[in-house]
Amino acid sequence: xxxxxxxxxxxxxxxxxxxxxxxxxxxxxxxxxxxxxxxxxxxxxxxxxxxxxxxxxxxxxxxxxxxxxxxxxxxxxxxxxxxxxxxxxxxxxxxxxxxxxxxxxxxxxxxxxxxxxxxxxxxxxxxxxxxxxxxxxxxxxxxxxxxxxxxxxxxxxxxxxxxxxxxxxxxxxxxxxxxxxxxxxxxxxxxxxxxxxxxxxxxxxxxxxxxxxxxxxxxxxxxxxxxxxxxxxxxxxxxxxxxxxxxxxxxxxxxxxxxxxxxxxxxxxxxxxxxxxxxxxxxxxxxxxxxxxxxxxxxxxxxxxxxxxxxxxxxxxxxxxxxxxxxxxxxxxxxxxxxxxxxxxxxxxxxxxxxxxxxxxxxxxxxxxxxxxxxxxxxxxxxxxxxxxxxxxxxxxxxxxxxxxxxxxxxxxxxxxxxxxxxxxxxxxxxxxxxxxxxxxxxxxxxxxxxxxxxxxxxxxxxxxxxxxxxxxxxxxxxxxxxxxxxxxxxxxxxxxxxxxxxxxxxxxxxxxxxxxxxx
Length: 520
Ligand code: AHR
Known about the structure:
alpha/beta; Immunoglobulin-like; TIM Barrel; 2 domains; 10-stranded mixed β-sheet
């Protein structure tokens, strides 16, 4: 057998501990994410736990979902948390950001009934065993309301008036929310600020917020893709003002991949590629857009380091994933919903491996968005539910959580393809490795749509006694799981032949693989 690619794992070159929180999620209050997705209501015939869809809870426990972001997104800067507490039948109905109250908008839930608020969301987190990450409204609520939301969530039982309100609403015990976003996309929908103005707002909101015995972790609204001006502007403004960077735990970064290669227009919807009808060139161009994430992490990290010399502030990639044009929704009318295919699974494996390779820089990441939305792990409608190929990737990658990331060298032939008649290339194999006790865990993606990789893993510094290989792939690159055919793309696990410090394996075309090795 001729080997064409190698994965060399360097056990004595640890890179840092992989934060479990890079396997986090994002649930914005829009369209079908909550209503019909997570929230079915207590009287629904759909199996539920206090109104929350049981299938979602069960699957999120299985993948060890560590943290969930709520309520947005752009929605966050329109949201008044007080609308979402107390008896549900008395809660006000408001225009939702994603329908803007426009009766002509063809989206569901353009008016928000506020049935899901802080208590329902925190109940969801508790059932899963995940932490909540709440994003505060900086654009349209005063700082006082941010402090009161923290009070409502975190004040000890029987202490403040808001602790009593919380108890009346069902939770005597505080929710102990540690992660607080101060606005969202504050350069855009979150207020159209300049970086210096936003730094001022950040300080106003985050200064002297009562911690109720907790060390709150504030996440500042960071850049969209390569907006280095936003990063340097904020960091410099914060540093000038008595070195107030110590107030910032995380610097948020957003990156969506639009598959623009064939986009012939600037139209917000039509300029994007299609979720299911794509060709091999679209596939590679989307991967290229996703690979940009690595440069964004390195680039912003460098700019942050110019002011934050000790790198106290970490990156929080709290929105990532592909975003296609409308038309592939499993449930018509669900704004922003798209059908995840095998391509999105490979994209997601690639992205998670980028985070795995930068453990000292990335403290948290949140895939946008969990269910019935963009790069969703799950699709649901009434009593239908399915795990998407992206959901399977999160399941396969869970053993990396908390592991020691190891420097790993991937070498393989490049993929060659054509873009509008011009030759183009993309890398042929990449991934990440981590060590937890005696378990060595390697994940990788083969982005080549037609060629397998005849591979060899070389473990430098130890030998393997046994191993398994889990493969997620399908004969058709467009394969996806529907309510009718939920098993078109599912992982398959097999024993792996190991030979001391060398492991041979074939990595099929268009695949995501997870290799678990027991070191001797
Ligand atoms: O995830 C959808 C939207 O994308 C979010 O609301 C916003 O933050 C981003 O622009």
